[in-house]
Structures are given as C-alpha cells and as structure tokens.
Write a structure and sequence with these properties.
The chain is mainly alpha-helical. It is built from 23 helices and two strands. A two-stranded antiparallel sheet has the order 1-2. The structure holds ligand D61 and magnesium ion.
C-alpha cells in the first residue's frame, strides 16, 4: 500500500524499497536490549509503545544521551497523559500536574487511575522514576526542572479553559513543547556533545518545540474538536466562524480553510530559527534526532495548507515521503534543500484571494532566505519554467500545423497568392 501511494513519486519508491530491504541506516543502532539492565530495558519498551515518532531517533542517540532522553521523554509523556485525561476532575488534575516533578523522588509512586491510551507510563511510573534517579545529577536537575515548569504551565492553561490570543498560543506551546526544546538542548550540552551556545540560546530551542507543537495542533484539529479539546487560538478562529466547532461544518469550509492557512502562516515563521538552531549542532546523532521531526513537520504543514481534508480527517504524510526524509536529514545542506522544496510547494498553493496571501509569502521567503532566493515559481513538476513556456509554444504550433494541414486545405490555400496556387494540385 505504501508503495502504491508513492507511485507518482519515483524517488520515494527507491527510498521505500531500500528501507524495507536493508532497514533505515540513519536511525538503526546496534542496541543490545538483552544485555541491558531489566528496568532500563522496560523503559525502552515503554518508549517503543508510547511514541511512533520519537522512538527511533531517541534510540539512535549516542549512548549516555540515549538513556537520559528516553527517561526525559517518559517522564513528560506521563505528565502529558495526566493533562490529556478527561476523566480526572479538574482540581485533582491541576494539583497532580503541579506536584508531579516531586514524584520523581518518591520511591514506588505510581498512578493507576488513568484511562488514557498511554497510561502504562503512569501505571509503571515507579520503574521510570527509579531509572531517573540513576541518571547523573546534572541530567536529573534538567529533567526535574523542566517537568516542574511544564506541569505548572499545563495547570495554568487548564484553569483558563481557552487559548485566547496568538500570544497565549505561543505561551501554551512553550509550556508543552518549547520547554522540551530547552531541556533537550541543556541535556546535549551537559553530555558534552554540543557547545554551550546550544543550551543558552533559549529562544531558538523554544522555536524548535513551537514548530513541532503548532504543526500537531493544526493537523489534529478535527480529532481534537470532536473530543472537545480546543487548541486553536480564539483570536484566529473568531474571524472565520462562530465557534471552533463551526469550522467543521461543510458550509463554512471556505472560511475554515482561510483560518487554517492563517495558522500555517504563523507556524512557518519559526523556520529561520529552526535552521539556525540545526546549523549550530556538531554531533551527528544529535543532528539527526533534531532534524528528522522538523522535516516531518514541514512536510505535514505542506500537506495541510489550503487542504479542506484537515476538517474531515487526520491528514498524514506518505510513508514513502517520511522514509525519504529520514534518509535526507543528515546534514544542514540537505535539510535546507528539503525545507526549500516544501516552502516552494506551499508557495505554489497560496490562493490569490487568501487574506493572508502576502503574509504567507513573506514568511516563506524568510524560510528560504538562507539560500537568498525569493518565492518565485521557477519550475513545475521539476521542469524549468522557461522549458515549459517554449514547450507549450512548440506544442501549440504543432497542433495548429496539423489542424490547418489536414482539416482545412482550402483555408490554407486562401492564404497562398494566386499565381502559386495554380501549381498546387488541390486548389482548383
Ligand atoms: C529536538 C528534538 C525533539 C524535540 C525538540 C527538539 C523540541 C521539542 C520537542 C521535541 C517536543 C515536541 C512535542 C511535539 C509533540 N507533542 C506532543 O507530544 C504533545 O504533548 C506535549 C507534552 C509532552 C511532550 C512530551 C515529549 C515529546 C517529545 C519528546 C520529549 C517529550 C522528550 C524528548 C524527546 C522528544 C501532544 O501529544 C498528543 C499527541 O500528539 O497525540 C499534546 O498532548 O498536545
Ligand atoms: Mg497534552
């Protein structure tokens, strides 16, 4: 099925076949789970079961960082499972979120009352916390502080009930994903694999998270709305519908898509920061770990932009596309090339009458600035624009020639001066 979906994209077919036969060398590791401490092994199993998108890239990190990031992921996944669980009463939930980081040091603590799909990380939290306590003090401090700040931010937003302004949208995304970008950057530095600047420039690290989280929120609109989870900022949707739910109504589709385009425009404004951040990374495993999710995000945004399907189902990128990107997220040059490709593809889809059309183009141009290019469509289906122009002229000329020659011989002869016409056999 994956192969069929990629049929119009030959380069994806190759990547898929390679992936299916020899596996993915970018994220494959010679990880020996059998030799590992049984509790750490269970943690890797929880990671595998709770994350499709981050498991492979975390496993491919260099040794020390791999354990730290795996535990960091599980701790925050546990916290997020509390946030997402609609069966826990608001007061109980907020109290738990605010004190959750303290549970890291409570031997044997776990939480058995969640109904969420990822509840295994709460049911088995005593195992995760005991592995946490084996990490270096520097790692423990980073993870615990990040968990404390995220829990308090989540509780704050649960009490507010709505994400009102665009500023609040950035704030919410900072708590749930920007803090992860900041925490991860500190872990990279603490492990000695990256330069101090990566950890101290929190604005860029925050943008890494915002780009991923906004993409998730944009993509999951339909699924979240039917479950009564509202993450699109009111300031944006109020211009296009009476309520967030009304954006799902087919009769409002034109407005809904305009709203979608506005939020995609907001998200792509993080691209320059993302590229600057990635450009500073030195370690290959850290680079792949950071770049792959960002590439998936831009491909997802490209698929979502101006696409009414976002309001009907969960829009996904093709497996072939994902595999191709994983294989191509290994250097900043390749990443920029892919980013350009997706930005240009969005640029081609900007509707002339979209009220954010010029803002979208400006944002895309900033994303492309690293190459110094303006958003001008130079090619279509990979054929240079000039080639298409001359090709069309030739084709039209040929068609006209055929038409005149076969269908209208008399029409043709009417253009021919009389004295020449006599010599033509058919013109009598
Ligand atoms: C480099 C590499 C990975 C990065 C990064 C920089 C910067 C930020 C992030 C990863 C975090 C990205 C979050 C985007 C996915 N969103 C969610 O999972 C939502 O929950 C957010 C709170 C929990 C965050 C847990 C997390 C995620 C990825 C990690 C990590 C921790 C630790 C280490 C590595 C990666 C979302 O989940 C529901 C869903 O998407 O189904 C939500 O509830 O809103
Ligand atoms: Mg959540």
């Amino acid at each position: 099925m994956d192969l069929v979906k990629s049929l119009p994209h030959p380069e994806e077919i190759l990547a898929l076949l390679k992936f299916k036969t020899i596996g993915c060398s970018t994220v494959n590791t010679k990880l020996n789970l059998k030799k590992m401490d049984p509790d750490m092994r269970r943690c890797f199993e929880y990671l595998k079961m709770t994350s499709r998108s981050f498991c492979a890239v975390i496993m491919a990190l260099d040794e020390d960082l791999r354990y730290g990031v795996c535990i960091y992921y599980l701790v925050l996944r546990a916290l997020d499972t509390v946030e997402d669980d609609m069966t826990i009463a608001l007061d109980t939930k907020c109290a738990l979120l605010e004190t959750f980081y303290q549970k890291l040091n409570v031997v044997g603590w776990n939480f058995n009352n969640s109904k969420e799909k990822d509840r295994m990380v709460l049911d088995n939290f005593q195992i995760i916390s005991s592995e946490f306590r084996k990490l270096s003090p520097a790692f423990q401090q980073i993870i615990s502080g990040s968990c404390r700040d995220m829990g308090s931010g989540m509780a704050q937003f649960l009490k507010r009930k709505v994400i009102d302004s665009m500023t609040e949208w950035d704030e919410y995304c900072h708590y749930v994903a920007g803090l992860v970008g900041i925490g991860l950057s500190r872990l990279f530095v603490a492990s000695g694999l990256e330069e101090p600047i990566v950890g101290s420039d929190e604005r860029l690290a925050n943008s890494m998270g915002l780009f991923l989280q906004k993409t998730n929120i944009i993509r999951d609109f339909q699924e979240d709305t039917v479950q009564d989870r509202l993450f699109w900022p009111r300031e944006a949707w109020i211009k296009y519908g009476a309520s967030q739910k009304s954006l799902l109504s087919p009769s409002n589709m034109h407005n809904s898509v305009a709203c979608l385009n506005e939020l995609v425009t907001n998200a792509i404004q993080h691209i320059p920061d993302v590229l600057t951040y990635l450009g500073r990374l030195k370690n290959q495993s850290v680079f792949n770990f950071c770049a792959i999710p960002q590439m998936m995000a831009i491909a997802t945004l490209e698929r979502c932009y101006n696409n009414p399907d976002v309001f009907r189902m969960n829009v996904k990128i093709r497996k072939g596309e994902a595999v191709l990107m994983i294989g191509n997220s290994t250097s900043i040059e390749l990443v920029k090339e892919f980013m350009d490709k997706y930005c240009l593809s969005i640029a081609r889809k900007v509707p002339e009458n979209d009220r954010n059309a010029s803002a979208t183009r400006v944002a895309l141009q900033a994303g492309l600035r690293n190459k110094g290019g303006a958003v001008v469509v130079h090619s279509f289906l990979g054929i240079p624009r000039d080639g298409i122009f001359y090709g069309l002229i030739l084709l039209m000329g040929w068609k006209y020639y055929l038409w005149i020659k076969d269908v209208k011989p008399t029409f043709l002869s009417s253009f021919i001066p009389r004295r020449w016409a006599y010599s033509l056999p058919d013109s009598r």
